[in-house]
Write a structure and sequence with these properties.
Layout lengths: L3 H13 L6 H8 L3 H13 L4 E4 L4 E4 L12 H14 L4 H13 L20 H15 L2 E7 L8 E13 L2 E8 L4 E6 L3 E10 L7 H6 L10 E8 L1 H8 L8 E4 L5 E8 L2 H8 L5 E5 L1 H17 L2
Antiparallel strand pairs: 1-2, 3-4, 3-7, 4-5, 5-6, 8-10, 8-11, 9-10
Length: 308
């Protein structure tokens, strides 16, 4: 092996695999002279690789704790990993185990948030994590799943067969997006409403859909529905709550003379945004579409009657 770069890579790989590396073993392995071996080792040391000769074991080695596969992370990188771990560990035991394994492979000390950062997230129930594990297997292997589903809007439990495409997380709830054989169309299913899930020995050919495109037009977890323009008027007291973040990619805000704002959205259907609107009552008023305004009016009148 006459190529110097290839020879250096060979030496590094042998050291990283903890093989016994001596001058004479390298003479045979990379087919160079003794002088060249010493020169290569010196080149690697000058380049910053912590190589030393262990006299007790009679081999060249990396210093204790160093590995090409285990990078040393900066304080900022370690903090970023700790934040991600604290957030994602609540998404299920499988993800938590994966993060712990990754932490070990990175040769990191056990990470935790510093005591001045407090982060809390709800841990999903065992039913959800079990469903998630089955669905991840089905999605990656393009397998159809069967389960019983009971919607929050219905008292009936219906058996479904679904070609699963992707999972997404919204407002502390995990959802499945897939093609429903019963409806012959794409539907969204909450994982906590799924029971008796089974991965079938039946494969499907996926169609080309973009989760990013689908979710970009949704408001909350509601993806289906025709595009509709929603116009809201928010009074001055509610303005600060709405303007503190961007709630949807289509969001447009116009300042009003009375100190309030006009907010416009273009979303798929109105069911998702209707729930969001209720969060900001009594500071928000629906201007358009009229059907949404009338629906909220009727529901609010019904709610008032319950308090009389």
């Amino acid at each position: 092996m006459s190529n110097k770069f290839d020879s250096l890579i060979t030496i590094l790989n042998k050291l990283d695999r903890n093989e016994k590396v001596t001058v004479y073993s390298l003479i045979n392995d990379i087919e160079v002279s003794e002088r060249s071996v010493h020169r290569y080792l010196q080149t690697l040391q000058i380049a910053g690789f912590p190589i030393h000769y262990d006299r007790e074991k009679g081999t060249y080695r990396f210093v204790e704790g160093f590995s090409l596969k285990k990078p040393n992370l900066s304080v900022e990188e370690s903090l970023s990993f700790a934040l991600a771990k604290n957030l994602l560990k609540n998404f299920g035991t499988g993800i938590e185990k994966g993060l712990n394994s990754l932490e070990q492979r990175l040769d990191m000390k056990e990470t935790g948030l510093p005591n001045y950062l407090i982060f809390k997230a709800a841990q999903p129930p065992a039913l959800v994590t079990g469903n998630m594990s089955s669905l991840q297997h089905a999605i990656t292997n393009f397998k159809t799943v069967a389960f019983a589903y009971k919607s929050v809007y219905s008292s009936k439990t219906i058996s479904r067969e679904i070609d699963p495409y992707y999972l997404f997380y919204n407002d502390d709830i995990w959802y499945l997006r897939g093609h429903c054989h019963l409806r012959n169309d794409f539907r969204t299913f909450a994982l906590d409403r799924i029971s008796s899930i089974k991965v079938l020995n039946k494969h499907f050919v996926p169609v080309d859909i973009s989760p990013e495109d689908e979710l970009s037009n949704s408001f909350g977890s509601v993806i289906d529905g025709k595009p509709v323009d929603v116009v809201l008027r928010v009074d001055a007291a509610g303005k600060a709550f709405i303007t503190r973040k961007k709630w949807h990619q289509s969001q447009k805000i116009k300042e009003l003379k009375d100190g309030g704002i006009e907010v416009r959205f273009r979303v798929n259907g109105t069911e998702g945004i209707k729930t969001w609107i209720y969060r900001w009552l009594p500071h928000v008023e629906v201007i358009a579409p009229k059907k949404l305004r009338d629906t909220i009016y009727t529901e609010l009148r019904g709610a008032i009657n319950k308090f009389q």
